[in-house]
Amino acid sequence: MASGKCLALIAHDQKKDDMAEFARANRDILSRWKIVATGTTGGRVLDAAPDLDVTRLKSGPLGGDQQIGALISTGEVDALIFFVDPLTPMPHDVDVKALMRLAIVYDIPMALNHATAIKLLPTLEA
């Protein structure tokens, strides 16, 4: 059962398999959170771990990154896990940078790769 805490999950195209596997492997911890995710990422997470409480927003390039940014700025997102692909150019790179800027400004925990997300997980259990 999800708590009142909200976690945002996002993954670039080349990292979606990694995010789905991350969600499957860590479903016990993630099941305690309400999850918001960009469209395709949320679908992949639900395929891997259908028992999670995932609300799918728009695809990142179609405004999903901005939707999550709005949720951060209104205090509705408590942590962000964003598996970034630094080797592929993103046409919506400005949106991605704005989202990361909001996470920093509002001082929420943010993991940008698998190794950091694993380190962040124990803090999500509290």
Automatic annotation (TrEMBL):
Q: Which Pfam families match?
A: MGS (PF02142)
What are the recorded Gene Ontology BP terms? Answer: methylglyoxal biosynthetic process
- Signal peptide start and end residues: none
Catalyzed chemical reaction(s): dihydroxyacetone phosphate = methylglyoxal + phosphate
Any single GO molecular-function term of the entry would be: methylglyoxal synthase activity
| Function (record text) | Catalyzes the formation of methylglyoxal from dihydroxyacetone phosphate.
NCBIfam families recorded? MGSA, PRK05234.1
Its recorded name reads Methylglyoxal synthase
What is the protein's species of origin?
Answer: Rhizobium vallis
Q: Which gene encodes it?
A: mgsA
